[in-house]
Amino acid sequence: MAEPAKKTEDTPEESTSPPAKKSKRSMVTIGVFGGVMIAEGLTIFLVMKFLGSEPDPTVGMMQTLETTTAPFEESKEIEVAHVRVQNANGSRTILYSVTIIARVDRENEAMLKEFLANRQATVNDAISRIIRSAEEKNLAEPGLETLKRQVQFELSRLIGDDKIIQQILIPEFTPLPTGF
User: Fold this and answer.
1) What does the buried/exposed string (b/e) look like for 123-141 if buried means 16 or more CB atoms within 10 Å of the residue's CB?
2) Does a structural domain hold residue 14?
3) Residues 50-66: pLDDT tens digits?
């Protein structure tokens, strides 16, 4: 009878030793796997550091650098519109106060002034529509390149000649948050 009690004591020792081997084996596997991943990451870093090139700082620049000041006699700046428009395409509704100026040749100045006198409401509506439908990221650009390009395209389409307007300038673009 003493022997059966001895077997019951051996049974718990045998049952605890296989999980200990199993956990040791899994710890070794995790350690090897982690070491391989660290070595791989370090290798990729070093290869890119020594063989890669420096990033080009001009990548992503959308606006080309051009002189905005032509000789005084060559061009004229004409105020096209001054509008206050809401834009609700972002996280909040924002009211924008915008002034649009067009730079044109002196020869085209009279023609543009006559066009604006006859079609001021159409021009204001087109510019308001562009700002209302613009995405928040386009309205947050430092140089407002997308907005300038869209306004120039729309004005050229309304006038019927894309060579009259040399450049669009936006000297005032003030966002006024609404709905506090």
Assistant:
1) bbebbbebbeebeeebbee
2) yes
3) 887 776 666 665 555 56
Is residue 67 situated within a structural domain? no
Using CB atoms within 10 Å of the CB of residue 103, give its burial: 0 to 12 exposed, 13 to 18 middle, 19+ buried: middle
Predicted model pTM: 0.57
Residue pLDDT, tens place only, 98-126: 999 998 888 888 888 888 889 889 989 99
Of 165, 173, 145, which Cα lies nearest the Cα of 82? 173
Residue 66 lies inside a defined structural domain of this protein? no
- Tokens at residue 158, please? 């309304």
Asked if the structure places residue 119 within a domain, the reply is yes
The whole-angstrom separation of Cα 69 and Cα 103 is: 10
Domain housing 33: 1-52
In this structure, the answer to whether residues 48 and 85 fall within a common structural domain is no
